[in-house]
Amino acid sequence: MKQSQMLIPTLKENPADAECVSHRLLIKAGFIRQNASGIYSYLPLGYKVLRKIEAIVREEMERAGCLELLMPAIQPAELWHETGRWDIYGPELMRLQDRHGRDFALGATHEEIITSLVRDELTTYKKLPMTLYQIQTKYRDERRPRFGLLRGREFIMKDAYSFHADEASLDERYKKMYEAYTNVFTRCGLDFRAVIADSGAMGGKDTHEFMALAAVGEDTIAYSDSSDYAANIEMAEVTFIPKASDEAMLPLDEGQAKQDGQALIHVQVFKDNEDQLVAVLYAAGDEVNDIKVKNALNATLLEAAPEAMNWSQNDILTHFDNVTILADNGIKNIVNGVIEASGKTLHFNVNAARDLSNVQFADLRMIKEGDPSPDGKGTIQFARGIEVGQVFKLGTRYSEAMNATFLDQNGKSQPLLMGCYGIGVSRTLSAVAEQHSDENGLCWPTALAPFAVHIMPINMKNDEQKTLAEKLYQELGHQYDVLLDDRNERAGVKFADSDLIGCPIRVTVGKKASEQIVEVKVRRTGESMELSVDEVAAFIEGHLS
């Protein structure tokens, strides 16, 4: 492609509202343009990269035995009512009505649609297992769209759904999709980790997130410094429990003031989806993990309710009516501790073994750097990550709610077992840009680069340079996607734009064109050398392969 015929509106200055590297460079290099908050157009360069990511995804999905289909973006509300998610999903679900007043949602995800489809089609074990996928635009009304494509209100996603007759089949598919995702993100050139995660509003139990490591990432990864253990910080198990001191137990509630060295126990109050109150006891200095609390209660929703309890003496130890009391494992061995809530001391000389014997203990706190790794190997460190994919075992969460059943080998009706597997395609584009860039612009991996080779004649008015550049363009174009900068621009402008765009190889045709010598530069390393025209093709092949 000739650059004079392309729409590549590069900018000299950084966009004022860009909050991260990928957002800044994708706009500055002319890959995307914002139409509204969290809504973007993909210009020709950006769309070329997007299609290459989609091609990799399709290849790996087909290799894993998945079948592609396309489902509607507009979904009837009745299906969401069947699963209860019309109310659970929250304000992120974009809702609308047609001219008849019928409720619809713009697809944030497609569990309801796919389940409604297969419940009429996959009615016997003979058709199982089956995995269906699509690549489609999704919509979520983010409260605060930010970081360009990393958190938008409209985005492109690959979502796959598998259907099974038994757990062994689901386990096998989960493993295969895990491997397929590993292949996708490796081929895209990402530095990533697969981490244990929470399924959130999706439902199900077993799930992993694929996190691209980046300082701008909104998620924190807890990982071992001595093994391959990694988990979303919200799901990382805490195995460390402080040892009990050997001091003698004192009588409960004796004492007029806290003494130096006494362990503090704090209380945090939540309200679940049925408006039931939950009080959580935990050690001062720790942080309650509301995801762990939600999972311990098997609740679908949980929100802080600090003003919900009117504290008075003996509240916690006498157990309020209709209040569930939970305690973090970290206070199991506390001796002569002090319970505080909302800055008020409730009890002195609390001994967990004696005074909290009827309280349910569980791992309810956030893991900390330096804690022992849950797998027993090394200690926990933190890193930031961008979620680019996630795999779930949904089980019967949707099939039971929507009556999606099949007849087993004995002719008995059973709910379908389901798996769900998502890749943020547009988010992957941004994550790659976040990781593959420098101070001058983007540095695309070969597999995703909009063009593999960027040919740049310094002066298009020079006949020798123009002729040689066009000769290389024709010859290399038979094997590679080539961009020829045929614009009548200053050399400085061309070099700056080339660095911004970030093609893996640049071939500069300059003053030595008459000698059939050009400069070849590797964008990522900055390595450059003069080569004869006859050597260029072999060098490019060796580098790009």
TrEMBL record:
Its EC number is 6.1.1.15. Keywords: Aminoacyl-tRNA synthetase, ATP-binding, Cytoplasm, Ligase, Nucleotide-binding, Protein biosynthesis. One of its GO terms (cellular component) is cytosol. GO terms for biological process: prolyl-tRNA aminoacylation. One of its GO terms (molecular function) is ATP binding. It catalyses: tRNA(Pro) + L-proline + ATP = L-prolyl-tRNA(Pro) + AMP + diphosphate. PROSITE patterns: AA_TRNA_LIGASE_II. Consists of three domains: the N-terminal catalytic domain, the editing domain and the C-terminal anticodon-binding domain. NCBIfam families: PRK09194.1 (NF006625), proS_fam_II (TIGR00409). Belongs to the class-II aminoacyl-tRNA synthetase family. ProS type 1 subfamily. This is Proline--tRNA ligase. It comes from Pullulanibacillus camelliae. The gene is proS.
